[in-house]
Input
Amino acid sequence: MIRVLVVEDDPTTAQAHAQYLGRLPGFALAGIATTGSAALRLISESTREGADGIDLVLLDMHLPDMDGLEVCRSIRSARLTIDVIAITAVRDLPVVREAISVGIVQYLIKPFGYPAFVEKLESFASYHGRLTDPATPTTQAAVDSALASLRSTAPGQLPKGLAADTLGAVTALLARADVAWSATELSDHLGLSRVTARRYLEHLAGIGQAARESRHGGSGRPEIEYRWRR
Amino acid sequence: MIRVLVVEDDPTTAQAHAQYLGRLPGFALAGIATTGSAALRLISESTREGADGIDLVLLDMHLPDMDGLEVCRSIRSARLTIDVIAITAVRDLPVVREAISVGIVQYLIKPFGYPAFVEKLESFASYHGRLTDPATPTTQAAVDSALASLRSTAPGQLPKGLAADTLGAVTALLARADVAWSATELSDHLGLSRVTARRYLEHLAGIGQAARESRHGGSGRPEIEYRWRR
DNA sequence: GGCCCCGTGAACAGTATGAACACAAGCAGC
DNA sequence: GCTGCTTGTGTTCATACTGTTCACGGGGCC
Output
């Protein structure tokens, strides 16, 4: 059984993660913390004699009192061998790099659905099982294979008709600045047709990642613009 | 260029690692340290204004003054985003787990030969290149794929279905110029079928050696082009 | 020789894309 | 208000490329 601490400032989201966890066999909820200091207190309590230890932390990077990276550093300097899965809405490569460098084992970008959640936790379970099994030999091959199970690449589920590459290009442009794009503007910029740009923008609006607004003023039918939601 | 610091208590072994590094294009030796404190001093000097930063540390776990894990923790608490490859003769699973938890990206067990060394550093170069490339979109798929390039495939062993000489022909053509090839173009040029060309190009994309892009514009489903990654 | 394994490509079903088009929503003039 | 005009939306469908399956041929090994 892998005991998991959920750290997330929004109570609703924290509950959702806890419920996701409840549906997964092999995992047990060890607690919920809504601040970084609460998380560190729960963790230090769990290391006491007789208490059930915590194996894994689902750690939101955005917390009211301190940065998620800071929480992770505190865990490390306390010499606790607790694994961390980072969860964040921040789309910033340097943050990803830093998170990996402080030893997070998985990186989940919000918003995500149950399948993405399951994939990350299952792969962690596989990794954890290998490295805690005393029968595992300490050979280069065994270590490589354990790391591989952690970093296995699984195909992300996209609706039919959408390509991961194109979606990546659209989100990269949209998320870069706080400006709203119309389908036509985006298509000009990326070398796509308006129809295709619209398809991807509508998808992002559908999953709540983009907000739709009407651009009034000129003559003719108003233009619809899409703004990235953080 | 990836700047590397070699940390190893035995001078002969340290020299050997530095020589291995010298034979690898894309990497530069930033220094050699034989103790933990010397390593930390070199690292803190390298972060000064005007100095060349250190990107990667080849860190032996066994050092005269302090544990390699302790060196790693010090780097973390100094908030430096420096990646670490652990090198050790210790065959102990808990040490492996703890090393991974403090954020090492690769784990090399001594003794190892040049091929194993190359494999670990090349896969790191691929990972590093992806996460420092500003063109990389911050999507779940991109992060997963960057992490996947850290996953090592056993040295010299190709996935089943791929032949070494065919792969050689493909990489030779791809790497020659900075143009992107579609699977069909490549197959025409090499006298292969499109299916086979695609297999090898997908393999290169999977290990991060090629970048995939969609070629939009014309009518019909877009063509995927593959560009060599340096 | 008989057997098995593996790299290859022909064939085919599936799927991202954009040209074309019918329609909808605003504005201006009366 | 109604009418016309202008501009962008939303949908359909041909299209070209993708991704997968499966049979073949050649090479190593009992």
Notes: The first strand of chain B starts at residue 2 and ends at 7.
